[in-house]
Each structure stands twice: as structure tokens, then as C-alpha cells.
TrEMBL record:
<comment type="function">
    <text>Crystallins are the dominant structural components of the vertebrate eye lens.</text>
</comment>
<protein>
    <recommendedName>
        <fullName>Beta-crystallin B2</fullName>
    </recommendedName>
</protein>
<feature type="domain" description="Beta/gamma crystallin 'Greek key'">
    <location>
        <begin position="110"/>
        <end position="151"/>
    </location>
</feature>
<keyword id="KW-0007">Acetylation</keyword>
<dbReference type="Pfam" id="PF00030">
    <property type="entry name" value="Crystall"/>
</dbReference>
<comment type="subunit">
    <text>Homo/heterodimer, or complexes of higher-order. The structure of beta-crystallin oligomers seems to be stabilized through interactions between the N-terminal arms.</text>
</comment>
<dbReference type="GO" id="GO:0007601">
    <property type="term" value="P:visual perception"/>
</dbReference>
<dbReference type="GO" id="GO:0002088">
    <property type="term" value="P:lens development in camera-type eye"/>
</dbReference>
<feature type="domain" description="Beta/gamma crystallin 'Greek key'">
    <location>
        <begin position="152"/>
        <end position="194"/>
    </location>
</feature>
<comment type="similarity">
    <text>Belongs to the beta/gamma-crystallin family.</text>
</comment>
<dbReference type="InterPro" id="IPR001064">
    <property type="entry name" value="Beta/gamma_crystallin"/>
</dbReference>
<dbReference type="GO" id="GO:0005212">
    <property type="term" value="F:structural constituent of eye lens"/>
</dbReference>
<dbReference type="InterPro" id="IPR011024">
    <property type="entry name" value="G_crystallin-like"/>
</dbReference>
<dbReference type="InterPro" id="IPR050252">
    <property type="entry name" value="Beta/Gamma-Crystallin"/>
</dbReference>
<feature type="domain" description="Beta/gamma crystallin 'Greek key'">
    <location>
        <begin position="60"/>
        <end position="104"/>
    </location>
</feature>
<keyword id="KW-0677">Repeat</keyword>
<keyword id="KW-0273">Eye lens protein</keyword>
């Protein structure tokens, strides 16, 4: 199984294939025992996965969590290859993934408003149909304590340049930083999560 990690890719061409599919390998570089997921898994160990060494996302996007029951640090995975843990995070805090769930992307339009204070108060930055690698470059240097997502699905990052802790923002309201999983109210860059039909960054192209 370990010698050719591209074999599962052929399944995505079949009619009726799942809209979400990833393959987890226990060792780096797509080696060792593997497990395929097509739906949410709140505890990988209970599903027989002892360790996540590398990940192949055939149909996404997905979000992984450091702890079971979708808790702890978050990692967003779009379609593509992730050969080792530092390809999906640069926070350097943990290399553990204990749960996964698919992320629904149902809008090609994107609008997010981030607020300085809890309950949508204070200074704000509004972003429409764009990725922003640095809030500072747009003149926003305040903390982010609450967020409104009016359309689209987004991922926010603790630092500029899409670095640090990741926070998934699906459509809805997040009244304080705890609601989006942040221990401190700091977000300094955001980008859209888009269907790979339109957005090819990091796309996995199987070799026929």
C-alpha cells in the first residue's frame, strides 16, 4: 500500500463518489497503514488510526483537530498532498490530529467582518471576495474578538502571511474569541476556502 499513494485518486472519477474523501497514513510521506475517511470522525483512535503522519486529500476541504470531539488546535486541509505535519501547520505546538470533519463550501461569494471587541463592537475590518495576507497593510492593527461571516467559508490565521494558529470560519456569528477556538483575540490574516473547481492552489493532480 505504501509504494503508490496515488492509487486512491482513481476513485474520485467514479460516478457517485463521495463529495469528501481523504486518506490518512500513519507514517510520513504516505507510508505505512492507511485509513480512508468520507465523513466526520470525532476520534481517530477509535477508528483504528494511532498516529497521523501524512494526509492525502482527494476531495475536500476538511478541518482536522488536535483533540477528539473536534476540540483544540485546528488545521484546514484543502485538496492536495500533506507529506508531514509541518506541511499543514507552522504553529509548532503540536503534531497530533485526533479528529476530522468535512467543511461545506456552498457559496462562491465571500464576505467576513472582524471586530476589535466581543459582541461585534469596536473597530472592524470588512473583507469581500478577497484574501488578505496582512491586516496591518490595510491599516487594521487591532485585536479580533468577534467575527461575522455573511457568506463563504474562511480560515483566519494568528499572524500575517497565513501563519500561526488557524481558525475556521463558517457562515454565522462568533461573539467572542472562545467561540472560534482562540485563546487570545489575535487574527492578522485571512483567506477564503474555495471549491477546487475554481481555485487550484495546492490541487492534487493524479498521474494516469
Amino acid at each position: 500500500m505504501a509504494t503508490d499513494h496515488q492509487n486512491p485518486a482513481s476513485k474520485q472519477q467514479q460516478p457517485g463518489a463521495s463529495a469528501f474523501k481523504l486518506v490518512i497514513y500513519e507514517q510520513e510521506n504516505f507510508q505505512g497503514h492507511c485509513q480512508e475517511l468520507t465523513a466526520a470522525c470525532n476520534n481517530l483512535q477509535e477508528a483504528g488510526v494511532e498516529k497521523v503522519g501524512s494526509i492525502l486529500v482527494l476531495c475536500g476541504p476538511w478541518v482536522g483537530y488536535e483533540q477528539p470531539e473536534c476540540k483544540g488546535e485546528q488545521y484546514v486541509f484543502e485538496k492536495g498532498e500533506y507529506p508531514r505535519w509541518d506541511s499543514w501547520t507552522n504553529s509548532r505546538r503540536s503534531d497530533t490530529i485526533a479528529a476530522f470533519r468535512p467543511v461545506k463550501v456552498d457559496s462562491q461569494e465571500h464576505k467576513i467582518v472582524l471586530y476589535e471587541n466581543p459582541s461585534f463592537a469596536g473597530k472592524k475590518i470588512e473583507i469581500i471576495d478577497d484574501d488578505v495576507p496582512s491586516f496591518h497593510a490595510h491599516g487594521y492593527q487591532e485585536k479580533v474578538s468577534s467575527v461575522r461571516v455573511q457568506s463563504g467559508t474562511w480560515v483566519g490565521y494568528q499572524y500575517p502571511g497565513y501563519r500561526g494558529y488557524q481558525y475556521l470560519f463558517e457562515k454565522g456569528e462568533y461573539k467572542d474569541s472562545a467561540e472560534f477556538g482562540a485563546q487570545i483575540p489575535q487574527i492578522q490574516s485571512v483567506r477564503r476556502i474555495r471549491d477546487m473547481q475554481w481555485h487550484q492552489r495546492g490541487a492534487f493532480h493524479p498521474i494516469n
